[in-house]
Write a structure and sequence with these properties.
Number of strands: 33
Strand order of the largest sheet: 26-27-28-29-33
Largest sheet: 5 strands, antiparallel
Shape: globular
Oligomer: single chain
Length: 445
């Protein structure tokens, strides 16, 4: 027979090309929803292919598991960048890791008689000087330790133990001084040597107060039995005594200072589910009230936690998580309006007119969805998103962006993350390197 031998079972009809293409398309779409797999003829091991923008893992360091997680609002799980190292602090101490290899380079010495770390500032000062508050025993956080983040060398230590135990210490550091609210001590200390520079003065009578503290400001609402007026809001710059503001008859309490530039303070009625507001202040000459934004309606479920809240000083746009880490939102502080939301995402840092964030994969026909979180760049005002890279994990065992502590080195294109495995609950510190490939646009929620 022309054309060769007849196959067993008789002649076979050819399969139309359109049917083959349709079958392949169905398979690709089905697999594209839940993962990325190697679709190549001859592969029999089910090997998984990395996504096109997979970020290379530079290193991974295991961390000690704690049955008592640290309080994020006290600056715990902070990550700081120094020359050639990443400094990380939690209840087990403050230590530095080589930013390229993950090798531990130093660990801060615990003051004699002290225990776990209680609190850290958001960042060290511009000279690389950091500060940590340690537990002096029984949950009393009163040991202050100031150190060089380049070497881990302790500069000085001071025990600020007061009449009452302190479980919510506040600490900040500027170029010239360390400022603390610990027990009965509300003071500033010189970076060099630790000499006292100032102590907060109280009105007459028995007083209670709520505080907020940052690198530049102390905000206090005092309620004093013999004060005139009894209740008063005071905002004070740490280094400029004349740079202050006093507001009599303040009804709300201080929750925390969210930003120094612009100055943004979160205030509330003091109870669970009570009224919350954002107060913004013009600090061009001295603090002056600018706007009060009531957190109702679209703004009601903003988290405003320190680690995932940041404010752009040029545009006055605030970015934070919402719904207890369900996603990320942006708010215009000049108008008080919600600009956009994105589910499963948390901000890492602000970069000009963009937000660098880590979030759940959304996927497009040209960029298939993945099981791993993605590093993204979002427009600060419009929320338009592009994927920079995928935090590829062979076991797909990374927590969501809002549940990690993160630091982005834009010059080296390295993302540092701290989190806990969802399957083993083992904490880790890890570094991922993004490629120089062009980012890929992804749709909004």
């Amino acid at each position: 027979m022309p054309g060769g031998p007849v196959p067993p079972g008789g002649p076979r009809r050819g399969v139309p090309l359109a049917a083959i293409l349709a079958l392949v398309l169905v398979v690709v779409l089905a697999l594209g929803v839940g993962g990325y797999f190697l679709l190549a003829g001859g592969s029999d091991d089910g090997a998984e292919q990395k996504p096109p923008l997979a970020m290379g893992q530079l290193w991974n360091a295991g961390l000690k598991k704690s049955d008592n997680p640290p309080k994020d609002e006290l600056g715990m799980r902070s990550m700081w960048m120094t020359d050639g190292a990443l400094v990380y602090g939690d209840k087990d101490g403050v230590r530095a890791y080589n930013d390229q290899t993950g090798k531990k380079e130093w660990e801060l010495e615990t003051p004699k008689g002290a225990g776990a770390v209680c609190a850290l500032p958001a960042e060290p000062n511009s000279d690389g000087v950091g500060v940590a508050v340690f537990d002096s025993g029984g949950g009393d956080c009163s040991y202050l330790s100031v150190f060089d983040t380049h070497t881990g060398h302790t500069l000085w230590v001071r025990n600020l133990k007061g009449r009452q135990a302190e479980d919510r210490p506040l600490v900040g550091i500027s170029s010239r001084e360390v400022v603390v609210a610990i027990g009965d001590t509300y003071s500033g200390y010189a970076i060099s040597g630790g000499a006292g520079r100032w102590s907060l003065k109280w009105p007459a009578g028995h007083c209670t107060a709520s505080f907020g503290m940052s690198a530049e400001y102390l905000a206090r609402v005092s309620d004093c039995s013999k004060g005139k007026p009894r209740r008063e809001l005071t905002i004070q710059n740490h280094e400029l005594e004349s740079f202050n503001l006093t507001v009599p008859h303040e009804k709300l309490e201080i929750d925390r200072i969210l930003s120094d530039t612009p100055l943004v303070i979160l205030m509330s009625a003091g109870g669970v589910n009570e009224k919350r507001v954002l107060r913004t202040y013009d600090t061009e000459s001295r603090p002056k009230p600018e706007k009060t934004i009531e957190l109702t309606g679209d703004l009601d479920n903003l988290d405003l936690k320190p680690r995932t809240t940041m404010v752009d000083e040029d545009s006055w746009v605030l970015v934070t998580t919402y719904g207890n880490g369900a996603g990320m939102a942006a708010v215009d502080l000049k108008t008080g309006k919600l600009l956009w939301k994105r589910s499963g995402t948390a901000a890492v840092t602000l970069d000009g007119e963009d937000v660098i964030a880590v979030g759940a994969s959304h996927g497009t026909p040209s960029h298939l969805g993945t099981q791993d979180p993605e590093l993204m760049s979002l427009g600060l005002r419009d929320g338009k998103a592009e994927v920079i890279g995928t935090l590829y994990d062979e076991k797909h065992d990374l927590p969501s962006g809002p549940n990690m502590s993160m630091k982005w080195d834009g010059n080296e294109r390295v993302l540092y993350i701290e989190g806990e495995s969802p399957s083993t609950f083992q904490p880790f510190l890890r570094a991922y390197k993004a490629s120089n490939a062009s980012p890929v646009a992804v749709p909004a929620d």
